[in-house]
Amino acid sequence: MNTDGSMELSRQLRPLLTRVYQMVRRRSPGWDVTAAQSSVLTTLLDRGPLRMGELAAVEGVRMPTATSVVARLVKLGLVERTADPQDRRAVQVGLTAQGRIQIDALSAERNANFAELLGRLSAEERGLLQAAMPAMAHLLSLDADPNLAASENDLSTALEGASNHE
Amino acid sequence: MNTDGSMELSRQLRPLLTRVYQMVRRRSPGWDVTAAQSSVLTTLLDRGPLRMGELAAVEGVRMPTATSVVARLVKLGLVERTADPQDRRAVQVGLTAQGRIQIDALSAERNANFAELLGRLSAEERGLLQAAMPAMAHLLSLDADPNLAASENDLSTALEGASNHE
DNA sequence: TGTTCATATTTAGATATTCTAACTATTAGC
DNA sequence: GCTAATAGTTAGAATATCTAAATATGAACA
């Protein structure tokens, strides 16, 4: 296997993706919430309310970590916990109105900052980036784990611009 | 301004980049060092030895944070601090042989894992991703800050596959 | 029905990360 | 040599993260 150049592409592309991601975050650090908190807010904005375990899985942390971060966000009034009537062991975590406002603002600032850089590329370069987006969405769908599947906003909506991510 | 579609592209592309980045990290969490530590190791692998302040700038954290993380990595034997003879206030931070081995291993695992996903795309999709890489490299160069410029490995080497990033 | 195992989450305790403010040491300008 | 700027560390506090253990609910079944 691997006569298709995937390994070579991975070695070139993965570092680039990492650096662009880091650059975006460095240029728009965000205000008064920590990195972990803003990541949770963005995940909830993007995927809608999640159970505690789903949130932990998406964030790539253990459940006690999710519990801890959510507890602080609740104290800040940015998210709320509601019991799941179907399964009373479970907890649904969702944004409050104030949480939505705050994370929308950060997301908009990051989009604007990134757009400024994109505007300095040539139209051809922007076209190439645009053309690569469906392949990226396909990559994401390949990773889809039934355990942390998106609910209302499924992966295809990532291309609609309706979702905002950290 | 912004009649070139940069804002719309940003709104679509930035979330995708974020999700691909998070997916890669979630699929290869790394062993015994923390996220902050592996990020520093990868930065040093990619950019070569850095001064403490440069390292903090690249990582997007304050200097005391860099000091703290480096101190732990020194204790683990993965990085070393050397005095700069030119400027005796400054400290150079670089990988030890053992540090290089460890971060090479993690980088290779992430590359292989990502390559497995890429291998499930069509050849056309891989071609589109490949074609978008120069534009990404250009984006990175636009962000170049003289304060945190790469030394031996400049940004163009990101396309050579010689560097490995978190 | 009640016992037992599995699942979802929290609590407890430890280590790591991160910040701001204040401190030390060195360099640069005059 | 003063004085100010620069590079880094130390101190102290809040947050984030982990593993192990506890709690509570759900599911299976004799």
Tell me what you see in this structure:
The structure is a homodimer of 166-residue chains. The first copy, chain A, is mostly helical and 166 residues long. Chain A has a domain at 33-120: Winged helix-like DNA-binding domain superfamily/Winged helix DNA-binding domain (Arc Repressor Mutant, subunit A). Helix content of chain A is 60%, strand content 7%. Chain A contains 6 helices and 3 strands; from the N terminus they run ααβααββαα. The first copy, chain A, has helices spanning 6-27, 35-47, 52-59, 63-75, 97-118, 123-143; strands at 50-51, 79-83, 91-95. Chain A has a 3-stranded antiparallel sheet with strand order 1-3-2. In chain A, helix 3 (52-59) packs across helix 4 (63-75). The relative contact order of chain A is 0.13. Chains A and B meet through helix 1, helix 5 and helix 6 of A and helix 1, helix 5 and helix 6 of B. The structure holds a DNA duplex (30 and 30 nucleotides). Chains A, B: Residues 6-138 form the HTH marR-type domain. Chains A, B: This is MarR family transcriptional regulator.
